[in-house]
Write a sequence for this structure.
């Protein structure tokens, strides 16, 4: 029997629901579906499924002690909501250990599918990893970035280890192209900027979810209003900053750093301990050779996230240049001596172009020979020019084969971002991946 639990958040509920329906229709009495939800929209997923709803009331259910050393403080600091209420957040997580452990045990859940963005997801992953008696495995079903519209099942919290299937593949299908989700999000931003009706609909949706016990979003109307106006204010001031137009003749030797959108799991979880981007950039600047430049480019979806003083402080550093956020990243990568990010796609793109890159936290694409993972302690002992001149054997083709043979066609973005993810053609591709996963872990 497959006892499969979904953990929907940030708009993934409709996609998970559609996947669950397809699986139940295919496997009939061989599968049972369970849900762990924190979003009110998914509180009543389906009367035929068993679900549990998590909110801050759990913090008041007794003063428990930690079940195991799950490193709660790490989880707490990574969560964009709980880290604003540390005392209550910590007790919530400690109590939640027992709630989640008992839910898995009582229902014999053997597979959990979710993401690695919110505290309850991280805690679930650690419970599955450390409590072997439960015989339950947690996987994140995640977009592999490049090529677009492919996903893999990741085993670990920082999404560095892919479940391997070794399927046959044609490496010619691998095309270097900018990730589709970036283009889709850019289009959504333009819609939100120019069409008031769309913006108002989103605001009303958020307002309906406001609840003091909400562990996944805004807990007060005032807090939400402050968030909205802060972003508008930050966007206004960002537009007043001097952003250069990139010209290679002006910057013959430069390092390129692309900002991460934040908060975001790609940096707050996968990039843990390197999530302070101001410190990251300052440390890179410290290593900058004489006469070199450090070129910064903001993420197009992150305009408005950071305060003006954040940029101004960095731009005071000699050699630091902020370019326009719409500058072609491929042009910057192609001409940079080396590309830096925490776990960013720009480092993957650099590797696929056989250019040097550094990620400050380990990623699944560090297997590309020119994409290094170094800590600042390691970088401190190196010379940037020597690193640039270092010769590496080209293994891009091997990486392409690896990623294609262990990933699946199918878009796993949320249905708000791309409604077509719910079409039968896309869902059938995703179900094929689940078929092989169940066989891989011997549930079929």
């Amino acid at each position: 029997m497959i006892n499969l639990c979904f953990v929907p958040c940030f708009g993934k509920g409709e996609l998970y629901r559609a996947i669950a329906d397809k699986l139940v229709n295919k496997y009939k009495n061989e599968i049972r579906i369970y849900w762990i939800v924190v979003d009110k929209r998914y509180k009543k997923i389906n009367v035929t499924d068993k679900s549990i709803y998590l909110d801050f009331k759990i913090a008041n259910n007794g003063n428990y002690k930690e079940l195991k050393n799950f490193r709660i403080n790490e989880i707490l600091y990574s969560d964009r909501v709980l880290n604003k209420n540390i005392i209550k957040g910590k007790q919530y997580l400690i109590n939640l250990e027992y709630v989640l452990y008992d839910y898995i045990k009582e229902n014999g859940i053997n597979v959990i599918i979710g993401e690695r963005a919110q505290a309850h997801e991280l805690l679930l992953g650690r419970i599955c990893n450390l409590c072997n008696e439960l015989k339950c495995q947690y996987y994140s079903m995640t977009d592999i970035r490049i090529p677009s519209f492919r996903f893999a099942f990741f085993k670990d919290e920082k999404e560095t280890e892919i479940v391997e299937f070794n399927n046959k593949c044609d490496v010619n299908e691998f095309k270097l192209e900018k990730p589709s989700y970036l283009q889709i999000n850019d289009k959504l931003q333009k819609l939100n900027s120019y069409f008031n009706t769309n913006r108002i609909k989103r605001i009303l949706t958020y307002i309906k979810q406001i609840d003091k016990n909400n562990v996944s979003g805004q807990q007060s109307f005032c807090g939400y209003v402050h968030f909205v106006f802060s972003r508008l204010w930050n966007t206004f001031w960002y537009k007043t900053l001097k952003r250069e137009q990139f010209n290679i003749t002006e910057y013959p030797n430069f390092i390129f750093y692309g900002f991460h959108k934040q908060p975001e799991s790609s940096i707050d979880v996968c990039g843990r301990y390197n999530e302070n981007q101001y410190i990251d950039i300052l440390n890179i600047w410290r290593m900058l050779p004489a006469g070199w430049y450090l070129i910064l480019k903001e993420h197009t979806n992150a305009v408005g996230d950071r305060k003006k003083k954040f940029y101004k402080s960095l731009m005071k550093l000699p050699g630091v240049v902020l370019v326009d956020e719409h500058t072609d990243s491929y042009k910057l990568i192609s001409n940079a001596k080396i590309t830096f990010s925490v776990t960013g796609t720009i480092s993957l793109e650099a590797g696929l172009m056989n250019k040097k890159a550094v990620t400050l936290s380990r990623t699944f694409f560090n297997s590309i020979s020119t994409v290094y993972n170094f800590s600042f302690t390691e970088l401190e002992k190196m010379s940037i020019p020597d690193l640039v001149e270092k010769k590496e054997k080209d293994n891009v083709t091997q990486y392409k084969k690896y990623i294609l043979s262990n990933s699946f066609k199918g878009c796993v973005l949320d249905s708000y971002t791309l409604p077509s993810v719910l079409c039968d053609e896309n869902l059938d591709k995703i179900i094929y991946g689940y078929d092989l996963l169940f066989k891989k872990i011997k549930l079929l």
